[in-house]
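Still learning folds. Look over my entry:

…
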Amino acid sequence: MTTNAASVETVATGGRVFNIQRCSVHDGPGIRTTVFLKGCPLSCRWCHNPEGIDEAPVLMINADRCVTCGACSEACPVEIGGAAPAGQQWDRGACIRCGSCVEACQADARELVGHDYGVDELVDELERDRVFFETSGGGVTFSGGEPLAQSGFLIDCLRECRRRGLHTAIDTCGLAPKEILLEVASGADLLLYDLKHMDPMRHRSETGADNRLILENLRALSESNVDVWIRVPLIPGFNDDAANMEATGAFLEGLPRRHRVFVLPYHGIATGKRSRLEETTAESGLQSPDAQTLGAVAEVLAHHNLDVTVGGSL
């Protein structure tokens, strides 16, 4: 698996998942089961799934549960204190992510995030929720991380879901080779496409990559017959200014087709996750946008003849 958008996989027999979330109501129509795939080519400051950025499993530590018994250190095969109890010095960079400390921890203070699945194994798990899909018009959404970072596995899963009659949606940042994106899109029923900022340099400064390919890919999707919903994550101080919203609206109005637009207000749900990853809280200081800001953004976009919905969370 790879997080490099220039070398996305096209063939896979299995993939890596870091969460399966049932009863999702903001990831497409109806009640959905959302599969979060590991790996992402972006590193957004506000990312609400930081544990999904790295393609490899990551160790998360809940310091509140740690009883400092030292069992993790005793179990660690790396003899440099690489699994010291929470609150004590250790070299996270030297961790080989073997999971020995997780198994040794009787307080359940440690979790190795990232589980490998085969295609049939994963789709069997998803099909358990068929009754909810059928009664609500829902289905399966593949998110991340960035699901296109495991495109081979994703394509195989989409093919199997379609064979079993499961509606599928892809939640993507759009940063992948166009031919891969279009191949994935052809196997899905719906694409949820993130549009973060219109200025390439500003986009790079906050996400780690510029937006040129993302915008080109969105235009290519709009030229196809794929059903696409645009999702604008509204991040205070980053993309909520009138100039950027005006540019966003003008771009979307100029696409070959009209697409539904969803404005998703930032919510700091990742703060606890970053703490368990022992990261500095990169999103420190960010606040959820108020109702006045949301209304102003929706009004700017609506002036461009767009069908705008404010709702959901990021």
Notes: The two ends are 26 Å apart (CA to CA). Residues 1-11 have pLDDT under 50 and may be disordered. The chain is about 30% helix and 20% strand.
